[in-house]
Amino acid sequence: MKKLIILVLAIALSACKGSKVSNKSVVITSNEVKETVSFLASDDQKGRGTGTTGIDASSTFIENQLKAFDIKPYYESYRDSFKVKDLNAYNVVGFLEGSDSKLKNEIIIIGAHYDHIGTRAKPVDNDSIGNGANDNAAGTAAVLAMARYFGAKKTNKRSLMFVLFSAEEMGLLGSKHLAQRLKDENIDLYTVVNIEMIGVPFKDRDYVAFATGYDMSNMAAKINEYLDSNFIGSSDVAKQYNLFRASDNYPFYEVFKLPSHTLSSCDLSNYDYYHHVDDEVDKLDYDFMAGFINTLIPAIETMSNTLTKEIVMTNE
Fold it and tell me: Is the whole-model pTM more than 0.90?
């Protein structure tokens, strides 16, 4: 595991040193990632169940972060509202327009769900709060960190949409809502990179993270090419449980039939606290998470600047 973490950090540092797009240094730190996770996964948020005061506080936190990072609302406000029966729910959607007069019309979505399972009916050791640190405060922290990076550097020719989805735990309802809304609005969506459960590293893989639906497009291969590294691999466990359909990438694939994948370092084989009250802040590896994000950023940056849409479907 130590060798893997060192590899991730080395790639990240190399990418930061080698960047020629801007002389502005923006490096994601383990402290900032931990601060975000600590807020979202605190007991105060009561597990961020859809329609609760905890998720409302979490969405306000996310909105304030996006505003501070110079990421504008995509709609009139950051909140993309929808109903879950009688509950009010909302995705949080930020937007950074691309710098190229033509390519800015093509949009890359960088997403993660920020809701979790709320409180449990049966406490475990007197704890009933499903804090959801790895699932998915970790992914939310990654999206916000990337928003800070791109908001500061503004090196993207294509436009970037930063989306924090709600009601994922209730059946991908937030992403289903937004995917259809964007389709109805006829946006030119290029691809979707969804981030899920990146709080712990693998111990037995020759790659850092996997892509769900690995063989359905060349996204993983292109990310590895852009990084000159075996960063993204394929998980047999993910295939076994069909995780491609289990996160917020899937509704976008269904609606747009475009490359839409989730990147994760946890395929349920290396973390014991999935939907458990012990999915707590102190269980995560923040050095690993910062390394993961710093490594992924140059791939997203390249993705946003290629002259053509290089990421394509390979298997319908």
Answer: yes
